[in-house]
Amino acid sequence: MTLKITIPGKQSGSTFSQLRLFLCFLMYCWVLADPACGYFLKNCTIRGNLSDTSNMKVLCYNRNLEVIPIAIPRKVSNLDLAMNNISKIEKLDFKGLSNLKILNMSRNQISQVDDGALGHLEALQELGLAHNRLTTLSDHLFQGLANLSLLHLDNNLIATISSSSFQLLSSLKTVNLTKNNLYNMKEVQPIVQLPHLHELYIGSNRFTSFQSQEISNTSIELRLLDLSRNPLGIFRITADVLPYLEVLDIAYCGQLGHMEWDVLDRSFLRNVNRLNLSGIEMSFERMGMVLQTVNSSLVHLRLHDLVNSSRLKIKALTDIACRIPTLSVLRLEYNNIGNLSEEFLQSCKHLTEVDISDTGLTQLSDFSFRSIEQLSALKLGHNRLSFVPKATKNLPTLKILDLSFNIINKLGCSDFSNLTELTQLIIFHNQIPNLLGCVFQDLKELRILKMGSNKILTLNDAFMNALHKLEALNLAGNKLSSIRKGEFKSLTSLKTLLLFDNQIASMEDGAFEGLVNLTELKLGSNKITQIGIRNTVLMGLPLLKSLDISCNYITYVNDDKLNPPPFSHLTSLENLRIFSQRHKGLSHLPINFLEGLKSLLSFQAGSLNIKELYPDTFIYTPRLWFLDISKNEFTALTPKLFHPIPRLNSLYLTKARIQSLDFLIGANLSRVTLLQVSKNDITVVNETVLRSLPALTYLDMQDNAFTCGCSDAWFVQWIESDNQTQVVGAGEFTCNYPADLKDTKLLDVELQFCIVRLGLYYYISTTCLVLLTLIASFAYHFLKWQVIYGYYLFLAFLYDTKQRNKHTPHGCQYDAFISYNAHDEPWVLRELLPELEGEQGWKLCLHHRDFQPGKPIIDNIMDGIYGSRKTICVISRRYLESEWCSREIQVASFRLFDEQKDVLILVFLEEIPTHQLSPYHRMRKLVKRRTYLSWPRAGVHTGVFWQQLRLALETKDGSSEENPILSGVQAL
Ligand SMILES: *[C@@H]1O[C@H](CO)[C@@H](O)[C@H](O)[C@H]1NC(C)=O
Ligand SMILES: *[C@@H]1O[C@H](CO)[C@@H](O)[C@H](O)[C@H]1NC(C)=O
Ligand SMILES: *[C@@H]1O[C@H](CO)[C@@H](O)[C@H](O)[C@H]1NC(C)=O
Q: Where is the signal peptide (predicted)?
């Protein structure tokens, strides 16, 4: 879980940044509340799932870490921090990891461990601190590790061990202090005194003596003591302190070719059964004494690498050792024996295992092993034998014969003829060019035959009539070029057949017939170009579970149906590997390539240069569980491809040129727990994609081309908070775009900002709404008239639209609508009406006479105005004050400039100075720019007045351009 408080930088509007800070603070609080809420750990990989505590591993090895990562899941049981650059363990580094059983911190630079830093690890059983720089083991170092049983401290610089540092490690069984700077045996005294300490490795230190009184006065529990590679000048045991010791390693000890051996009583080492005296610098006589000391219990003796000893001395030592009646294993590796004479092992009657590997053997006497009555394992590897020595032929009890890494260049018919008990024959890495039909015919009990890395060209009939019990045959790394029909006919028990790394180009039909128990067949790295023309090549393998034909030369020119399909007989096959065909790759995967593989669980088809997969490719393999189609050239896949394989659990699509994960949507992959799509060109991962994989626990998306924009914000948040899916290496995801973020880490980009921004949008819109309301109320208060006017303008507009929608042109019922105030009614009735209706014959609309009862007044006004050609406004002071009148004039003037019709005729009943018109903004403008009629000015000459009115009423409707009266109002 990473934690970031975003301090706003560039875009700091103060509200904005404060808000952002606040939201970030909220997020921070939320993160603090549950420090281990996510399944994501920077620089580490989690194995196992969060709910199963018994098995959770956190792997952080080899990541250049300099400090111990924070927020390690508390339930972890195995934590691997090896191979980093950590130099210090601090007091709280492992706080709360009370479930941890295994902690590996090997190969770091640790030189300092705070007191009590490991004390939190109550459950710890195994602690690895090897290959560090510890110099001292202090008093409180291991405090609290009451369950610790295995402690690795090898390869440090430890010179002193505090007397109480091991005090409370009551469960400790094994301590490895190999390769340190210890020189005083007293330092290890507190360790060997522990009640359960069984194994102590203190080899490769600077001890110059081992004296029993330095480590204890009473008997201790030690079972194994490794003192090898110390410059021990003396080994002295004066009391019965090691009664349980079983394994003693004093290889490569001694000082200046010299080491004293002083064990007072033979019985002090009465239980030692394994002894390593390899490379010891000790006189021959003393070595004899050593062997005498353990001569009632020794079973296993190593006498490797006695450089300074002649063959004779080795022979003499061997004689002493072989007289120990309990001895059964003698290992003489890395000595220079060269020629094994008949006498060399003459006294070794009781041995069951002899190892004379790497001793420069070129010859063995035919009877070298004759006296060994019960020899069961003979190891002659890494020598110079050019043929199977006769000495190995008559060993009826032999079970294991190892002749690997010699130069044997032929096998004869009688080479193994009397080894009827042999179960393992290892002739790996020799120079055998071919086999004879008779060579294995007597190996009736053979189970394992390893003949890899030879030069075998043909098998002849070697496996046609022998080895009925053989279970594993390794012929890898030879020169076989073809497999003939029935070549392995008699191997009816064979389970594993390894033929990889040969030159096999052709396999006859029935090549594997008879292998009725075969479960594993490896044919990788050969020259196979097709899997048989007919489909009988792989016939007769009813139990085959695993087939590997990767790294061959199989190619298809198109994806047409194969007839017959290549694997149709392999109904038990569970695992098919065909990846990496050389030359052109497979290029195309034929539609029915997998036909018949109804048991297939795992299909590995990476590096095949396939561009497309036919949607029905997997209809034959309904049980498919594991699919690796990495390193192909897909660019895109269809969801349909996955419909036939609903059980798919693991999908590997690394380096497949995938640009988007959208194909997962609707692919029905509800059981996929692992998805690896690293090294592709994916830029964005969205929620829908990941929701379509409900069981996903492991996602590897390393090395993709993230855009690092807000489109990734959801993904980043999900990585950090989802507690089911672990996104491997998420800390290393790098941005590819935009240019200024290139090579920045995705998780370091401040994308929380995107999520914050959503909140910001809400905030801004609410603010706007509030401001708008405020402005509206202010406007209403201070600009009331403009607002009211605007309102009526709007109503008029609505009316107009309504009228227009009715498609009824205003059929003019009236010549003029008279708009007047009730106070001016007498004038209207007495002067205007008689003149216009009576004298001039116009049809007028008067509200007291012509308005329809029951209709809203505003509608009546509208109908009146729009139903008349002209509107005559009879203007007086009272008229201007009246609400309805101003509405009338407004509607009329709206019509004026809405319809571009000159409908208004203004008749002033009294003189009104223009400044008094000011609240009636519109009126003032009209008056300013238009001609109008004035009753008072007419005086007694009413005739002119009425004549002007008639003219005004007679004017036709017309656009403003044509009408000189209107042109003045254009600016409105
Ligand atoms: C994570 O690993 C990288 C390199 O692998 C290293 O540079 C970085 O410091 C590590 N991160 C932490 C938090 O230690
Ligand atoms: C002890 O440490 C040495 C040196 O690193 C290593 O070779 C050996 O395998 C270790 N033994 C055990 C039992 O861990
Ligand atoms: C195999 O053993 C038999 C009887 O022990 C013996 O007669 C025969 O010579 C042996 N064969 C070889 C090749 O040594």
A: 1-33
